[in-house]
Specification:
Blueprint: E1 10-16, E2 25-31, E3 38-47, H1 50-58, E4 69-77, E5 89-92, H2 102-106, E6 131-133, E7 136-138, E8 150-154, E9 158-161, H3 167-170, H4 176-187, E10 195-199, H5 203-214, E11 219-224, H6 229-234, E12 240-243, H7 251-258, E13 265-268, H8 273-281, E14 289-292, H9 307-310, E15 314-317, H10 325-337, E16 347-352, H11 356-364, E17 370-374
Parallel strand pairs: 10-11, 10-13, 11-12, 13-14, 14-15, 16-17
Antiparallel strand pairs: 1-2, 2-6, 3-4, 3-8, 3-17, 4-5, 5-9, 6-7
Helix pairs in contact: 4-5
Pfam family, one: ADH_N
Protein name: alcohol dehydrogenase
InterPro entries: ADH-like_C, ADH-like_N, ADH_Zn_CS, GroES-like_sf, NAD(P)-bd_dom_sf
């Protein structure tokens, strides 16, 4: 594309969600040029995350283009962008990093006051959308919207990667895998020889397991309703599997019994606030730490007996595993290239972009970890 392409509207294919739970429709959409401090990206591969599924089933902002785990190539840059140039390979970031706000400069947080999680379906900079169909606006998801051949993101919501990195693999690092690894390393700081229990063995839960294994945890107990996940989980470090549907007593009692008083760390990776209480009850007195990563569909309010905290348990939330998106993600990419972390095994399906509804069905039925959609060449 010539440098003048940054001034042109692009018409391309995108998967548009017109209503909650309705099949996505491949439409011809118009993608506006990047505005100041934005880049337009040609999406190469994008994967389906459970939060896309949750939002598609329940949120009220439609029509919308979902997707936030993606890899691609910069097509054009907006005014003021000097970090990226046309042809750069990038990963998109659902939560950005301006590097100037109070949160970014604190050294204590990976939250950004300027480019944090966007919930209104628009761009951070001007509260407008860059997508339209026949002149009608189509809304964004997490200011990324990667279920489109082209998308526009703020330059603070992308990170440059080496052109040697396989784009069809690394896209899954944009959210779920990084979130799980970071929860084990940055939030919980899992110690060698410890006992870990993980509720929910999807991509995030299995990434927690991989992180705990690499930290030397001696027992990693996986809890899930799907017994078919038992064997797969072993490859990521799970040492024991408990089928939630086969327990004859509350699962927290099972955990406390087999761990002599509770796990050192528990991770809630389901998105169920009642399970957060269960995870707290599955931790030991004194130092037991529960980390919650899931996004709940319903009942967002947590309820727990104060006695759990008086006895020394701690509850912590985790957004993107505590990683500063632009600053820290390159180190995870390097670890992947050095084969220090496993990413490929999370990809259970590769599909053509036109088959995106199949990916949604596979995830809804619990038959996949990550489906990677490949855009047309």
């Amino acid at each position: 594309m010539s440098s003048s392409s940054s001034d042109q509207v692009i018409t391309c294919k995108a998967a548009v969600a017109w209503g909650a739970g309705e099949p996505l429709v491949i439409e011809q959409v118009q993608v506006s040029p990047p505005q100041p401090m934005e880049i337009r990206v040609k999406v190469v591969c994008t994967s389906l995350c459970r939060s896309d599924l949750t939002a598609w089933e329940s949120q009220a902002i439609f029509p919308r283009i979902f997707g936030h785990e993606a890899s691609g190539i910069v097509e054009s840059v907006g005014q003021g962008v000097d970090e990226f140039k046309e042809g750069d390979h990038v990963l998109t970031l659902f939560s950005g990093e301006c590097m100037r706000c109070r949160q970014c400069t604190s050294g204590k947080s990976n939250m950004c006051q300027v480019l944090g999680l966007e919930r209104k379906g628009v761009m951070h900079s001007d509260q407008m959308t860059r997508f339209s169909v026949n002149g009608n606006p189509i809304y964004h998801y997490c200011a990324v919207s990667s279920f489109s051949e082209y998308t526009v993101v703020h330059s603070g919501c992308a990170v440059k990667i080496s052109p040697t990195v396989p784009l069809e693999k690394i896209c899954v690092l944009s959210c779920g895998v990084a979130a799980g690894l970071g929860a084990a390393w940055n939030i919980a700081d899992v110690s060698k020889g410890s006992t870990v229990v993980i509720f929910g063995l999807g991509t995030v839960g299995l990434s927690v397991a991989q992180g705990a294994k690499l930290r030397g945890a001696s027992r990693i107990i996986g809890v899930d309703k799907n017994p078919e996940k038992s064997e797969k989980a072993k490859a990521f470090g799970v040492t024991e599997f408990i089928n939630l549907n086969s327990c004859n007593e509350p699962i927290q009692q099972v955990i406390n019994r087999i761990t002599d008083g509770g796990a050192d760390y528990s991770f809630e990776c389901i998105g169920d606030t009642e399970m957060i209480t269960t995870a707290l009850q599955s931790c030991c007195d004194g130092w037991g730490l529960t980390v919650t990563l899931g996004v709940p569909k319903v009942k967002p309010v947590i309820s727990a007996h104060y006695g759990l905290f008086l006895t020394g348990r701690t509850l912590r939330g985790s957004m993107f595993g505590g990683w500063k998106p632009k600053s820290d993600l390159p180190s995870l990419v390097d670890m992947y290239l050095k084969k220090e972390i496993n990413i490929d095994e999370y990809i259970t399906h590769n599909l053509a972009f036109d088959n995106i509804n199949e990916a949604f069905n596979l995830m809804r039925e619990g038959k996949c970890l990550r489906c990677v959609m490949h855009m047309p060449k």
